[in-house]
Amino acid sequence: xxxxxxxxxxxxxxxxxxxxxxxxxxxxxxxxxxxxxxxxxxxxxxxxxxxxxxxxxxxxxxxxxxxxxxxxxxxxxxxxxxxxxxxxxxxxxxxxxxxxxxxxxxxxxxxxxxxxxxxxxxxxxxxxxxxxxxxxxxxxxxxxxxxxxxxxxxxxxxxxxxxxxxxxxxxxxxxxxxxxxxxxxxxxxxxxxxxxxxxxxxxxxxxxxxxxxxxxxxxxxxxxxxxxxxxxxxxxxxxxxxxxxxxxxxxxxxxxxxxxxxxxxxxxxxxxxxxxxxxxxxxxxxxxxxxxxxxxxxxxxxxxxxxxxxxxxxxxxxxxxxxxxxxxxxxxxxxxxxxxxxxxxxxxxxxxxxxxxxxxxxxxxxxxxxxxxxxxxxxxxxxxxxxxxxxxxxxxxxxxxxxxxxxxxxxxxxxxxxxxxxxxxxxxxxxxxxxxxxxxxxxxxxxxxxxxxxxxxxxxxxxxxxxxxxxxxxxxxxxxxxxxxxxxxxxxxxxxxxxxxxxxxxxxxxxxxxxxxxxxxxxxxxxxxxxxxxxxxxxxxxxxxxxxxxxxxxxxxxxxxxxxxxxxxxxxxxxxxxxxxxxxxxxxxxxxxxxxxxxxxxxxxxxxxxxxxxxxxxxxxxxxxxxxxxxxxx
Length: 634
Hints:
Blueprint: H1 5-9, H2 14-17, H3 23-43, H4 45-58, H5 77-93, E1 100-104, H6 111-128, H7 131-145, E2 147-160, E3 163-166, E4 171-174, E5 180-190, E6 196-199, E7 211-219, H8 220-228, H9 235-241, H10 251-258, H11 264-267, E8 274-284, E9 293-300, E10 305-310, E11 320-324, H12 342-363, E12 367-369, E13 396-398, H13 404-423, H14 443-483, E14 488-491, E15 497-500, E16 509-513, H15 522-538, H16 540-545, H17 552-563, H18 569-572, H19 606-621, H20 629-632
Helix pairs in contact: 5-7, 5-14, 12-13, 15-17
């Protein structure tokens, strides 16, 4: 039976397995590892400042300003483009219900085994980690910063079960037994990039780094609970040496607001002391004999080692994956989509504030007053029924202002707005608008613009498949093999569930995310499928003369699942036996003539038949993603 996560971390001799209890390990972690972590943080300060700038542009916070103006508004152009890209990309990652595939590799696995592995992974992705609900926060961080890490691990959440106990007078709820109910399953968590570091940062991916770590901030209550479970040692020392004030960094402002005072003793009433620490995944010499092995180390900000143990996972790799966009060779982190539009956003804000001030000046003009022509200057006010006491007809007159300045300012702002959308690869056609382009005036032109706009989206989806989604499926499968104790009720075919035992998912498998091959327009695929059925119906006598039997159900099932996005095709198309006279009429649909009969005096030319069938199959293989033509024509 595979061990649980805590059994991989905890053993009978806790001092032996958790090396944090050894004084020599404590000293080496504090002397060797702690300065290294701070050095890595310092090396990314410039990049962290850029991350803040990109986030402020999305959060509508002013930074670079050349003109403030009276309104000082912030036009949400960058935010609009970002959210439009998030919506399009999140939809493209899950275009249909069948968005990933598992194939058996080698003699140790069969297609039936692959179907069971796929069912377990679908259960993990949809019911346990709820990947669909996390995709937008992942994509939002990805587009704002250019990189978005995730953690794929195993979790054991314990809770005490409550059972109803009936008394003679009434029914009450009380703790019948202190049972530990464990919620076991994988974890797919989007990691805050500002609290995640990897080194070196001049490599082309996380798998080439030597150290990865994540910073946390926990209260002393949580740390003590983990210590009671045996996960951490030296917790009391870490709490005592924590430099943060009780209640967090803003404890002083809370005490002043509540009137408690400034004393630390009174401030402790606000809550527990918080401890900053790092979870580090790197190679480390625990025994001091020079043997560097993959390790999992938890160390506080002040250098107190809470845990130092061997890597608990079979794959022996850090449990982090990171999606990157607009990558460059020799750079670990990607480039933000806001990077190209950051200063354009500042220009748009200045232009919009200038246009508003210009319109305000025209609507509220400057008045020129002739000296002595106004009896009472205090009466010169704007409003319904206002009376100006003057002794000359032209004593008060507005200063003429060119009205066309407003339209010119608005035109400049509109041009800058469109430049931001183009710089962030979010043209109007991608946002559901036709725009002002000439190509958007016809249906064909709209389709061309849509295809051009989807090209960067297709590239992004393909990159995310290779960087995050496919490796995550492999890691989930490995974690299932290592930690799953009991079977999983999962859907294998149709809507029926089957109990899949952990021993049934062993073997060699290939995991593929299918979103990039399904981004094409569903309506176009449906039209192509119907066209293919019509063409096959017309050349059916030639195929039958060569001994080929056409199975339209294969194509219809693929149209049903891939193009239309439906599931359970077997329930829609149920086998009821062969009807021999139905296929010749496939080509004779509405508006399509029936296939011409071949004269009886003419024998079938085998070369023509063979060439025509092969050419027809090859011409329709590409529009449908290079599918299995032999599956439709046995």
